[in-house]
Specification:
The protein is an alpha/beta fold and about 325 residues long. The protein is built from 14 helices and 5 strands. The chain folds into 2 domains: about 120 residues, 3-Layer(aba) Sandwich (Rossmann fold), CATH 3.40.50; about 170 residues, Hypothetical protein af1432 (Orthogonal Bundle), CATH 1.10.3210. It starts with 11 loop residues before the first strand and ends with a helix.
Length: about 325
């Protein structure tokens, strides 16, 4: 394994190829463009390096011992934490089926040997620009997550609330067979669902007793404000309905839009269900945490009144009973 070094490099690129001459060729080209190449001799070694070193882009030979480039690509793309890292597959064979498999693996590009230096450099530069856009997006999302968690931190009784909602909602969505896109939206929404409370005065937010009509009116604006805060991020498109509608009720008496029944998005209904459960099963200034059995008893009563989705309550109860 060779670790090349060069001052002022802008990105780290992992090269995995069992042919030493190919590793040297790619490394030389990338170093000349200001990148920092890290090389691996096979797929297993590549995954070991990838797991321990921050990597910005991966170049994989298709035919390698131990693990093929296809399999390494699949593993990188199967992990939600690494699937946005660009992967380039390189093959010495001109095989139409290999291109199809590369697409199925999630590869971002596919090159055939012998490579043309100018084309290779152009494609790497293009993928690195896309990676920069992705990094900027993740930074923006991170700022929103930090803001949401800072709101949670104001109230010692809600510690861990956001993380639990993210976990519970994904578990319920998985049990319901919802697609990954909606599970991902719920994972994010668990953290930012109440981000609009940043505009609610602390005297209202932390008030131990009941709210006045005016205070309630202010509090009920937080889903709209939260939606407005997150709207500029296109990656939050599926999160916005959850933020806006997680205080709606099945009978139409919720807020902010008074949606009723199936008009409330399924993801928002899931968030409502787990939000109520977590509120009931954690300590509050005015009462101690309830045991799960009591919490579900109350939730089933609320479902019978037309506030919660009874089917989701029953499904979530079944999930929690297995823990």
């Amino acid at each position: 394994m060779l670790l090349s070094t060069q001052a002022g490099t802008t990105a780290t690129i992992l090269i995995a190829d069992d042919d030493v001459s190919n590793r040297h060729l790619f490394s030389e080209i990338l170093e000349g463009e200001g990148y920092y190449p890290v090389t691996a001799r096979n797929g297993v070694e590549a995954l070991d390096i990838f797991a321990t070193t921050p990597i910005d882009l991966v170049i994989l030979d298709v035919k390698m011992p131990s693990l093929t480039g296809f399999e390494v690509c699949r593993r990188i793309k199967a992990n939600p934490d690494t699937r946005l890292v660009p992967v380039v597959l390189v093959s010495g064979l001109i095989n139409a089926n290999d291109r199809i498999v590369a697409i199925e693996c999630g590869a971002d590009d596919y090159l055939t040997k012998p490579i043309r230096k100018d084309e290779f450099i152009a494609r790497i530069h293009s993928l690195m620009r896309l990676k920069q856009f992705t990094d900027d997006l993740e930074t923006a999302e991170g700022v929103l997550f930090d803001l949401a968690l800072s709101i949670e931190a104001k109230d010692p009784y809600t510690e861990g609330h956001c993380d639990r909602l993210a976990k519970y909602s994904v578990e319920l969505a998985t049990a319901l067979g919802l697609p990954e896109e909606e599970r991902s939206a719920l994972r994010k929404a668990g953290i930012v669902h109440d981000i609009g409370k940043v505009a609610v005065p602390e005297l209202i937010l932390l008030k131990p007793g009941g709210l006045t009509d005016e205070e309630s009116r202010i509090m009920e604006q937080h889903p709209i404000i939260g939606e407005r805060i997150c709207k500029p991020l296109r990656s939050f498109r599926g999160v916005l309905p959850i933020i806006r509608h997680h205080h709606e009720k099945m009978d139409g008496t919720g807020y902010p839009d008074g949606l009723k029944g199936e008009a409330i998005p399924i993801t928002a209904r899931i968030m409502t269900t787990v939000d109520v459960y977590d509120a009931l099963t954690t300590d509050r200034p005015f009462r101690s945490a309830m045991p799960p059995e009591k919490a579900f008893e109350i939730m089933q009563e609320e479902a019978s009144k037309g506030w919660l989705d009874g089917k989701l309550v029953a499904q979530f109860k079944a999930i929690m009973a297995k823990k």
